[in-house]
C-alpha cells in the first residue's frame, strides 16, 4: 500500500523541514550520494544554494517529503573544439526525511538532472 501524505499547514512543522533542507551543504550532498551525479555534469561544479519550498511540504506520520531547488555553477574546461566557461544551472530535487518534534533529518534526495530532455 502506498504511503499517504497530507500537505503540511502548520509553521511548526514546515519551518524545521525547510530549514534542514536549506542548511544542506556540499558534504551533506556527498553523504547522500547526490553530489557525484551533479558534479558529473561538468569538469567542475560548485554548489551555490539549496532552497526548500515551504509550499511543497507533505507529511505522513513522522515522515516528510518536500521539493527543493539546487543551484550550482558548472565549470567547463576549454577543449579543442569548444570554448570553456561557467554556467549557472538549477535542478529540482525531491527531499525525504523524518520530523521528530522540531528537528528534521534529511535522509534522501532525488535530483532531476533532466538528461532525458537533452536527447
Question: What is the element layout, followed by pairings?
Answer:
Blueprint (H helix, E strand, L loop, with lengths): L5 E2 L3 H12 L3 H6 L3 H5 L4 E9 L5 E3 L2 E14 L8 E16 L2 E10 L7
Antiparallel strand pairs: 1-3, 2-4, 3-4, 4-5, 5-6
Feature tags:
3 helices, 119 residues, elongated, 6-stranded antiparallel beta sheet, alpha+beta
Structure, described:
With 119 residues, the protein is α+β, with helices and mostly antiparallel strands. It contains 3 helices and 6 strands. Strands 1, 2, 3, 4, 5 and 6 form a 6-stranded antiparallel beta sheet that branches. The model has no long low-confidence stretch (mean pLDDT 88).
Sum this structure up briefly.
With about 120 residues, this protein is α+β, with helices and mostly antiparallel strands.
Number of strands: 6
Task: Tell me what portion of residues adopts beta-strand conformation.
Answer: over 45%
> What is the assembly state of the chains in this entry?
single chain
End-to-end Cα distance, whole Å, is 35 Å
Mean of residue pLDDT values: 88
Rg (C-alpha, Å): 16 Å
Which parts are unreliable, with pLDDT below 50 for 5 consecutive residues or more?
Answer: none
Helix content: 10-25%
Q: Quickly give the structural class.
A: alpha+beta
Biggest sheet details: 6 strands, antiparallel
Q: What is the general shape? A: elongated
Order of helices and strands: EHHHEEEEE
- Tell me the number of helical segments per DSSP (H or I, 4 or more residues long): 3
Amino acid at each position: 500500500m502506498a504511503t499517504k501524505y497530507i500537505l503540511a499547514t502548520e509553521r511548526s512543522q514546515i519551518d524545521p523541514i525547510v530549514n534542514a533542507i536549506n542548511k544542506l551543504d556540499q558534504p551533506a550532498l556527498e553523504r547522500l550520494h547526490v553530489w557525484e551525479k551533479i558534479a558529473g555534469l561538468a569538469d567542475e561544479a560548485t554548489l551555490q544554494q539549496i532552497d526548500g519550498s515551504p509550499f511543497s511540504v507533505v507529511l505522513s506520520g513522522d515522515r516528510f517529503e518536500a521539493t527543493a531547488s539546487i543551484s550550482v555553477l558548472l565549470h567547463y574546461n576549454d577543449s579543442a573544439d569548444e570554448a570553456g566557461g561557467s554556467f549557472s544551472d538549477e535542478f529540482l530535487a525531491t527531499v525525504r526525511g523524518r520530523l521528530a518534534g522540531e528537528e528534521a533529518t534529511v535522509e534522501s534526495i532525488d535530483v532531476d538532472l533532466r538528461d532525458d530532455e537533452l536527447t
